[in-house]
Amino acid sequence: MVARQTPDVSRAPATTAYERHAPDPRVVEHALRPSRQAVFWLEGAGTPPVAAPLTAPTRADLVIVGGGYLGLWTAVGAKRRDPGQHVVLLEAERVGWAASGRNGGFCEASITHGEANARARWPEEHDVLHRLGADNLDGFADDVRTLGLDCEWERTGVVQAAVEEHELDWLGADRLDAAQVRALVDSPLFLGGTRNADEAALVHPARLAHELARVAQELGVVVHEGSPVEGLGRDTSGRVRVRTARASVVADRGVLATNVFPSLLRRNRLMTVPVYDYVLMTEPLSAAQRAAIGWAGREGLGDLANQFHYSRLTADDRILYGGYDAIHHLGGRLRERYEDRPASFARLASHFFATFPQLEGLTFTHRWAGAIDTCTRFAAFYGLAHGGRVAYAAGFTGLGVGATRFAADVLLDLLAGQPTERTALEMVRRRPLPFPPEPVAALGIELTRRSLDRADHRQGRRNAWLRALDAAGLGFDS
After folding, report:
1. pLDDT tens digits, residue range 131-163?
2. Global pTM?
3. Which residues contact 277 (CB under 8 A, 6 or more apart)?
4. Where are the domains of the chain?
5. Which fold has domain 50-147+204-271+377-429?
6. Pick from 212, 440, 413: which is nearest to 332 by CA?
7. What pLDDT was estimated at residue 476?
8. FRET partner for 116 with CA separation of 20 to 30 A, picked from 123, 292, 295, 306?
9. 176-177 and 192-196 beta bridge pairing
């Protein structure tokens, strides 16, 4: 995708394609009626054996806090580098229950939240970052094969569709016209787009987390679930001490992989904010319904709006449809009640049938939400604390399925103290700007969200607030 240009227009329609082609409200009501507030992926991943909570003081070489993708990849990577070291992983709930078990399952090559973000923030490193991201995705595919990860891996690529005339100007030289895009995925909204066959894959996200936990334990990692960490410090000898309500782990080194949850390091408390993303899952499509939309290549699918949608097929031919609303709540807190937002689900359902009117009558079986750890540069940041004994990464901003594997290697490199190509990156060496404290952060995020929505309604024209963010290096590009 090329850098976006502000269209030279004097007037623009005050509606989007999704609004202009909105279905009858009764279609939306019928489709949502049988849906349940439940995460499809977690229900379909089976129930892995429960790992007992930490109940006794433990000594380790490496302690990892967090049982999502980042913590699990770090645990697996640590044991592969040094099989003899004792690694302990602490998870507050169940492995993979949060973002790692409820995302869209898009595994992308980009480790920078897209080409435009990389070119804007690290122009001199862009080519290196692109190569490292491609290598990471290839390495991911190799791990799926060699480790036997049963995660429904599909190297399908991704289609990006333009649904407004002004979005066509954002496409590169390899753009597809409307007929070519609709030959891939048939929607009357699609005016053009691109297809990248190499830089994305699809996975079953919860199965991936469970499989990584299985491999980690087979390599000798000790996993403790139901063990929320309450404190991080150093003992009298300088070793890392991680404390739970029942016991503690003392280790030579530690990794913090808590992502969207409040950091155990004060310096990182304002580095991320939680933003809730909403998702729908349809019932399985019939053969006739599949024929009506095509999608023979099973690519991941997204549009080009600031408030963008993403969708994909599952192994049993359901359609996952999510995105658009990104909701931050005052105070930056995480609450289960935030996951049920009828207005967001109704809007998604309406946009779904605007995209695929040929599927009217289809119903949704699941609806859910998850919190994304957003930082001001929209790609992960890294660092060391406690005298170089504790490494951390966070801020993946919704593209962590693939990037967490890369990040795990960065963290292990940092703890080893050996310079590598990864640790020399400016992206790794420099931290992004923090968010301001609440309630200023909430006000700024809401103003940004409304401004992005207005831009989508005004042919991409960015207002003064968005232009100021762009100038400060804080601008968002989906």
Report:
1. 999 999 999 999 999 999 999 999 999 999 999
2. 0.94
3. 322, 323, 325, 326, 369, 370, 371, 372, 398
4. 17-43+158-196+275-370+440-471, 50-147+204-271+377-429
5. FAD/NAD(P)-binding domain (3.50.50)
6. 440
7. 56
8. 295
9. antiparallel
